């Protein structure tokens, strides 16, 4: 069995109480790594912006440049794709900004923990490794005044460190909730729903992020392949209409006893359209085969994601190394077999 996880943004809910050792170790993701990921998401948004511009130019092609039924269909589809691309671009930008903002919080959190450790060390508290230990709980009443003052001073220093740690923790938790809210708003990802689920996947670890990314990529490829198949079929349909129109014109010219040169020219035009139609039909069939294959892969990826989210087992085929059979029989060592 393989545990399916999300990134553990906020899993450890420590019950820190006054008088407990105060941890100063930074155990979260490195801020620079988070920041770099946010930058990569925003760069991806920049690439999507190119698609937005392309769809917008296609959707606004004037009738003088491209007219007809095919042109109208192209403009309609481009307008729809433009709206989808704008939504993807805006979501990526928002998600990238949220991730960058979270990296800044993590950086301040790490710096705050380092300063807390240095302050506790400078004030003479008991610091062992990455933990600040509280002073002794009690002191004899007949202890010298100097020891009493030092004991009280240590507890005040510990209290300051404790309050600083609580502030740092609460600030990070607020930022974590904001990041989770951004994931839900921009990427429809809900980490709190993805915890503690199991799927069967050999000995490999599978994350919901990978499953979602795989499903999204397969879905996008299926959409692109479907669009290509539809465009190829529209080309076939248009060539059919052109062929029928050309054949009709050729028949009219023959019936009207037009000059042989005109009839021959029209016949060559019909033959050329027919050749083009034949090639377009082949392309359309191939495009449909690709579209069916991509759709099947997208359906499979979607089922994997759905099964993982519902906790169902997911079967993964493991390739088995094939060995060339030997012609010579290997003698059986009975001593090895029987001990």
From TrEMBL:
Residues 292-339 are annotated as: Disordered. It comes from the Bacteria. Residues 303-312 have a biased composition (Basic and acidic residues). This is Uncharacterized protein. It comes from Nocardioides alpinus. The lineage of its organism: Bacteria, Bacillati, Actinomycetota, Actinomycetes, Propionibacteriales.
């Amino acid at each position: 069995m393989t545990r399916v996880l999300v990134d553990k943004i906020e899993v450890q809910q420590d019950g820190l109480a006054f008088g407990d050792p105060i941890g100063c170790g930074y155990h979260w993701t490195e801020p620079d790594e988070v920041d770099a990921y946010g930058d990569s998401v925003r760069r991806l948004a920049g690439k999507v912006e190119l698609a937005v511009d392309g769809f917008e130019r296609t959707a606004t092609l004037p009738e003088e440049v491209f007219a007809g039924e095919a042109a109208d269909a192209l403009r309609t589809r481009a307008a729809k794709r433009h709206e989808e691309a704008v939504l993807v671009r805006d979501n990526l930008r928002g998600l990238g900004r949220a991730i960058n903002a979270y990296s800044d919080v993590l950086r301040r959190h790490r710096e705050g923990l380092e300063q807390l450790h240095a302050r506790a060390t400078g004030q003479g508290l008991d610091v062992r490794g990455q933990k600040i230990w509280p002073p002794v709980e009690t002191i004899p009443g007949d202890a010298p005044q100097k020891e009493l003052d030092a004991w009280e001073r240590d507890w005040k220093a510990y209290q300051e460190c404790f309050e600083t740690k609580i502030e740092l923790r609460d600030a990070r938790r607020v930022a974590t909730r904001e990041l989770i809210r951004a994931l839900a708003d921009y990427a429809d990802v809900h980490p709190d729903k993805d915890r503690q689920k199991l799927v069967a996947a050999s000995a490999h670890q599978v994350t919901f992020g990978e499953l979602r990314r795989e499903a999204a990529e397969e879905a996008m490829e299926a959409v692109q392949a479907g669009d290509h198949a539809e465009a190829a079929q529209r080309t076939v349909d248009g060539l059919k209409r052109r062929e029928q129109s050309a054949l009709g014109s050729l028949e009219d010219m023959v019936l009207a006893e037009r000059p042989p040169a005109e009839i021959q020219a029209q016949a060559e035009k019909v033959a050329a359209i027919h050749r083009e139609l034949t090639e377009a039909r082949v392309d359309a069939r191939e495009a449909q085969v690709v579209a069916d294959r991509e759709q099947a892969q997208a359906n499979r990826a979607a089922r994997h994601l759905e099964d993982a989210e519902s906790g169902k087992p997911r079967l993964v085929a493991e390739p088995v190394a094939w060995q060339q059979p030997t012609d010579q029989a290997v003698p059986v060592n009975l001593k090895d077999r029987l001990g």
